[in-house]
Specification:
Elements: H1 2-11, H2 26-32, H3 44-54, H4 66-76, E1 81-82, E2 90-93, E3 97-104, E4 108-116, E5 129-136, E6 140-144, H5 161-172, E7 176-177, E8 185-186, H6 192-208
Antiparallel strand pairs: 1-6, 2-3, 2-6, 3-4, 4-5, 7-8
Helix pairs in contact: 2-3, 5-6
Amino acid sequence: MIERILSIARAEVGVKESPAGSNKVKYNTWFYGKEVSGAAYPWCMAFVQWVFDQAGKTLPLKTASCSGLLNWYKANCPSQVVRTPKPGDIVLYSFGHTGVVEAVGDETVTAIEGNTSPGTAGSQSNGGMVCRRTWGTALVAAYLRPVEEEEVKPMDNTPSPAHKAGVDWAVEHGILTGDAEGDLKLTAPVTRQQLCTMLKRLADDLEKK
């Protein structure tokens, strides 16, 4: 999920509102359900909302306000307001701006941000473009973690009855050494007939279950 979020955000880098200074952009159209423009429609949070929605992880509060989303998480999911960021988190800056964390340095955070500028010359929170930006962590107000990476569970290597029956047959006929619970080794190259017999034994045993 986190890689999907980042992939979607990265693909938007370079998208601009049109015309410049209008806040007329596809993220606002998605957010408001219609085409909008004007100073009342800044879209850095609309961009973040759009990214998570496209990734299949719609945020719990649909808001265009940075402080509004932060306050919702503080009130309802305080454990998801985190101090140490990870890629895929939402970063909220002290100057009223937001983005999706892409990478973390010792004292910096790099994020994909909507409605910003590619450099320091333009507006940082109303620049009209999706850009990759790096900021010092001193400018960060908070990090939100809407998605926790799922724990990868180890595979269950417990042999099934059918698997054990096939292995036992192969050991009995000198094709394998070892047993179903341990390491197995071929004693010699397997002929097509032996392989077919072993598979047939497995199939027959499965039909009995």
